[in-house]
Amino acid sequence: MKLNKLRVLLFVALSFAFNGRTVCENRQEHSLNFPGDPGNNFCTRSARLDSVLIVKTDTIAVYALRPIRISDSLFALLTHEEHLIHALDYPEQYRQICSLYSIDPLAQKKIHAYFRNDWGERSMSERQRAALKENRTEVIDLIKGCLKSDDPINNRMKDLIVELNATECIPEMVDRVKRNKQTDTYYFTCMLLLIKNNNPELLEGTEFERFYTGSNRIYDLRKTTERMEKILTLVQTFYQSTFD
Amino acid sequence: MKSVATLLLFILLSLSPRGPESGFVKIEGGVYSLGEKDHPFNPKREVNMNSFYISTHEVTNEEFAEFITTTGYITTAERYHNAMNFYVGLGEYEWKEDSTACWKFPFGTRNPGIESKHDHPVTCISFEDALAYCAWKGERLPTLDEWEIASRCANKDRYFWGKDSGEITTYANIWINPDHRDTLLHDPWLFTAPVMSQKPNPWGLHDMYGNVFEFCADLPPAFPKAGQLAAARGGSWWCSTNSCNYFNSVDIGRVNRYASFPNHGFRTVKE
Fold first, then answer.
1. Mutating which of B177, B255, B263, B264 best tests the A interface, going by the most A Cβ atoms within 10 A?
2. Which phi and psi angles does B213 have, rounded to 5°?
3. Range of the domain at B66
4. Which of A94, A103, A125 sits opposite B255 (nearest CB)?
5. What is the CA radius of gyration of chain A?
6. CATH of the domain at B47
7. What's the whole-model pTM score?
8. Chain B: nearest CA to A1, how far in angstroms?
9. The total number of structural domains that make up chain B
10. B183 with B88: CB under 8 angstroms?
11. Which of A71, A159, A221, B159 has its CB surrounded by the most CB atoms within 10 Å?
12. A 58-97 residues with CB below 8 A of B?
């Protein structure tokens, strides 16, 4: 632990020299406002974050502004909680925003075959995804805690749920959909999980059969109450058959 | 060693058949109608613009190589190994990290580089790289309004020929397959095409739509304030009718200013 503290402090000192920014300035600009269960919010629970961790996450914030990443050695020091924060709040990879969906006024009335391209110009890098997969069980527990809250959640969370094939989170997502019927799109994440798991009830002989598969694939469907209900019913059935 | 390699590349490109000379078209000053009703980033409005000169084509590999050889500039991708790559079979909007990709090897060093593409638009360069080139050249990136005026040719519709995209492949190198998972349809230029190989718009400007997204100097007021954004317009070889449709005079794409993609490039403006 002493060695780690020394390494991080040295690293921070070097980053000051390189970047010329103060820790306080970074914390103000890049506070880790990650919503979750207020009683168990691993992002804001300062008792959980000792001085080393605060410094560490500030160093991460410094690098959020630059086209370089934190070193592999510092990346390896992150806990699984910090890996999740790092991936969701400081995604390392780039995206380009040229999606019709992001400005399509009809987008809310459609079920799309893939994620809408509307969560910013960054996404999780391969090493971030790999780190989360390596700690899959712990990360899913953290995700479940966030899903239980009513706070808005970074859209990358949905991407991560599908990436991890986090079917364990289905009850929390379904519950969240039912609590936020008009605006929440977790039913869509549920659908992608069904597709990822080749759910025959969804994909065979239904309007979803050609959803981004086959030579005559389709890319969106009109969002209807019936289709939403079908997705929720199927995903709950899938969950029960998988985990019961 | 790297500078020697770049010099050799420049010599090789220079000995190849010359690409187009960098011509400019004068856009007359005046009042222009821009934007589109209810567009979240580009609302309908009129602007009073001074005259300016805009390049007839996107900056080419040959032109960029001259800049590199003369200045020794190191691009963002070469410095930080943070470029993004593409290959057929990826999902929609999916790009892959490639630490080997850069302007000389837009699709990474496992794929051919630009040796036979002196007259293709330079790609896998960041917004910062484009600014550096412009500073060296004594030119600049077009503003969003300048780019749009040049692309519209005084037409008030989405496209300089009208309301729908029916004629797009006459003027633009775009992705003609329905998506990026396969290439069932024959596409004469799967990635970049030589600049000026498509028919120009009525004002003599080539590839305003398609080929590469073109960086613009400023950002729309409605873009997110936080972050490190750069605006890019016109669509690219990657854009398809099913996924994107950004090959028009209205929409405005965005990307991180340090990002390098093989479908981003730029053209320049001078006073």
1. B255
2. -60, 140
3. 1-271
4. A94
5. 20
6. 3.90.1580.10
7. 0.84
8. 30
9. 1
10. yes
11. B159
12. 65-69, 93-97
